[in-house]
Structure prediction request, 606 residues.
Amino acid sequence: MDLRHLRYFVAVAEEENIGRAAARLHISQPPLTRQIQQLEEELGVTLFIRTPRGMALTQAGELFLEEARNIRALVEQATERTQRAGQGKLGRLDVGIFGSAILDAIPKLLLAFRNRYPDVKVVLHTLTKAEQIEALRQRRITVGFNRMLAPLDDIGVCQVSTEGLLVAIQADDPLARQPVIRFAELQHHPMIVFPTGARPSFIDKVIGLCGTAGFQPSISQEVGDAVTGVALVASGFGVCLVPESATTLQFPGVVYRALADTPPNFFVDLSCIYRKDDQSPLLGAFLETVEDFKKTCPAPLRV
Amino acid sequence: MDLRHLRYFVAVAEEENIGRAAARLHISQPPLTRQIQQLEEELGVTLFIRTPRGMALTQAGELFLEEARNIRALVEQATERTQRAGQGKLGRLDVGIFGSAILDAIPKLLLAFRNRYPDVKVVLHTLTKAEQIEALRQRRITVGFNRMLAPLDDIGVCQVSTEGLLVAIQADDPLARQPVIRFAELQHHPMIVFPTGARPSFIDKVIGLCGTAGFQPSISQEVGDAVTGVALVASGFGVCLVPESATTLQFPGVVYRALADTPPNFFVDLSCIYRKDDQSPLLGAFLETVEDFKKTCPAPLRV
DNA sequence: CCACTCAATACCTGCAAGGTATGATCAAGC
DNA sequence: GCTTGATCATACCTTGCAGGTATTGAGTGG
Prediction:
């Protein structure tokens, strides 16, 4: 049996007339007669009563008509759904994020993606940089977000945003009275750095920047992410260099100050990473959304 | 698209290897490759990622696999159900019966049929003889039960049972003292006859029998069926000739007596009628059951 | 670097789906 | 009562496509 048989059968059952059904199917009458005969023979069931006025369904035929319509509808639905899945409009996207990613452009980006592709289920996984790369290779995630990514030959990178740095400082610190702090002035303040874990990372960036500014920071504490870092600033552990977007974190007793006399290469970037060999339409759809996102809202990211 | 495509797709998805799938399908590898390519092209969706180790499903492929299995199961179920319907094991049988048919072999017969074909829904319609023939011609019923059927060229007849007659008589009637009553002795008793409605019928049989016995019955009342007839006997309206099976009706004050000196052609038959041109397997199954019924229980009908 | 494993391609063959012409059957109409 | 028209069935031809064999291409692992 064949889907063609079902199509033909339904047509004949609906027209109750082989000739008209054949016309509707754009074939001639004899092949249709034969296909119906074949179908009956294969099932071993008489589906139609041949009358001089046309074809009338038997009881078994009535039943088969229901089933055939059912099957045809299911086939149509299956192709439709599969095609949507093939266009990245339906399915599941696993995304790797890092600890404090929630402060950044990521939520806005994910929201934009969900609006465009409401039937794609986005699943977030909190993973370190190394874990993200591992997970990408094992296909456990499709995209990851991270900073300071070294190029790899099987992993593609797409920069999402760039931000400058601010210093988080206790409000009652003398330096905090200045609206802008010169970079070198941080020299004698104990510094909180993050993240612990996989290197190179934001921590190395900070240390490097201090180096180019001519001093070595006195590290008071290493913490896991920006949130903890700013919390420790509030507790008086020292100052902490954070990306601009961390201003979302409003801790009592902590203020953010812009820096002057900053070294070159002062910006940190947020990028998303993915398998270069991944042809998945979901990935394509996501990267497209990232590109559009960069075009439509670059401004808010530099605030 | 084709059911073959689905079968092939499922095989490849399950084996994750075209060669093994081809072996399982008893075809060679290249046609299978082509069929999968065709399927992908027709859907416009990449279903598999070709790896050097074999074929891996894409997300869209995973989804399509579910759908394909679903469809294949539905097709299998549809053929199975249709075949059962085609063998008369599934469906609906509309049966025409007459008023007092409930007294007769019909309940036993219908019970036997339901035991054999539990998935056939039997629907009873109370119809007069003429209505039954009309309903058969319009296919509103598939079989009918009746007595005294004149042959018709489009209606087939199959005799179910034959019974003799008894007389229903008031218990305090002098005649009722005799264990057996001679037919001619009924001559001066008023007689209740049935049914009203379409002729020729049981009523004509009774009048005819009286004629051959040499008298004309004095008809006290015409009623619709045997039940009413016996009820009127209880009320003193007269005697009533009934088929043996009417002894099921036990009215207070009414006894049944056998008849002696009966005319020839004293028996009444119960037959079922059907369209001669009806090839329905349900009808075949029913008539078969009737035949078996006649074979297995002829005795109880003559009690 | 070679052998091995897969999938893809090229090309051929045969069957079955589709087409045309015609037959068989029945109902309705002049 | 024969004819006409409608309907499904049959006969026979043609062709497109499924399936086969042989081979190539690509990537992996010893």
In short: DSSP finds nine helices and 13 strands in chain A. Chain A touches chain B at residues 1-4, 43-47, 49, 58-60, 63-64, 67-68, 70-71, 74-75, 77-79, 81-83, 85-86, 90-92, 279-282 (CB under 8 Å). Residues 17-19, 29-30, 33-34, 37, 50-55 of chain A lie near DNA strand D (CB under 10 Å from a C1'). Confidence is low (pLDDT under 50) at residues 299-303 of chain A.
